[in-house]
Design a protein that fits this description.
This protein is 31% helix and 19% strand. Strands 1-7-8-6-5-2-3-4 form an 8-stranded mixed sheet, sandwiched between helices.
């Protein structure tokens, strides 16, 4: 069996104060916004973009601290988007060595190769990655797992990330956070899936009615899929409750399995 080390943030109150500042700034400065990607919902004040950018920067910082990648580290990013909003493809924006990134997505994101010289983009399904075992030092996937589809497809997605990398990092919103980040409805995502999807349908969120496009997860769901792998769980809080989960998975075989 693998082990799990649960990391808690001691200074989340200070982080939340910064979030409130970002939120007020968004209310004051942002105008109407329409998204070219179906996975990003239009928002009049672009508050979801500000919220997402704030949280993801915290996750990026923790990832860099935990993995300490360098200029020779080969990186795979699975789940890049054709969206060009501030919080989209944030890893490519923040990572200091983008020329070492191979980016994979289901949408046409070839513009990334122009934006980040040296980066390679490949349009492919994350559940069937066209790479050999342990091709990359680090694989990352941010807020993509919940959009992969059924639990079986999500498990296959995680399995592929682990197969092609020595270490992988996966993030997903926490299903038990009171607010559902894609629709910004409170609490209804705690209902049984059939009821949740019926409400989304009635409210006009037809894209997210399908399990293929939105299938929320808890920490327990993800850990069950990861089986006995060695995992560190990082929890990120937003105004109190845990809003986002980050799983750092070590894919090298343990000494007792080495033969």
């Amino acid at each position: 069996m693998g082990f799990v080390r649960r990391h808690q943030r001691d200074h989340w109150i200070l982080d939340d104060l910064f979030f409130v500042v970002h939120l007020v700034d968004a209310l004051q400065k942002n105008g109407p916004y329409m998204s070219p990607s179906r996975y990003f919902q239009a928002d009049v004040l672009s508050i979801p973009g500000r919220v997402s950018d704030f949280v993801r920067r915290r996750m990026f910082k923790r990832l860099m601290e935990a993995t300490a990648p360098g200029p020779k580290t080969s990186v795979l990013d699975v789940g890049v988007s054709c969206e060009r909003r501030k919080d989209s493809n944030f890893f490519e924006k923040l990572y200091p060595f983008p020329h070492r990134i191979t980016a994979v997505g289901m949408e046409d994101c070839s513009f990334l190769q122009q934006d980040y010289p040296g980066l390679k983009f490949l349009k492919a399904d994350g559940t069937r990655l066209p790479f050999a075992d342990k091709s990359f030092d680090l694989a990352v996937s941010f807020a993509t797992l919940e959009h992969v589809g059924t639990r079986e497809r999500q498990e296959a997605f995680l399995g592929e990330l682990c197969r092609v990398s020595r270490v992988c990092c996966v993030t997903t919103p926490n299903r038990w956070y009171p607010l559902e980040f894609h629709t910004f409805f409170p609490l209804i995502h705690w209902l049984p899936p059939r009821m949740f999807r019926a409400i989304l349908f009635a409210a006009g969120h037809r894209f997210f009615v399908s399990e293929d496009n939105l299938n929320l997860l808890s920490a327990r769901n993800v850990m069950k899929m990861l089986g006995g792998r060695q995992v560190d769980i990082f929890k990120f809080r937003l105004l109190g409750p845990v809003s986002n989960l980050m799983f750092l998975i070590k894919n090298e075989r343990k000494p007792d399995e080495a033969g």
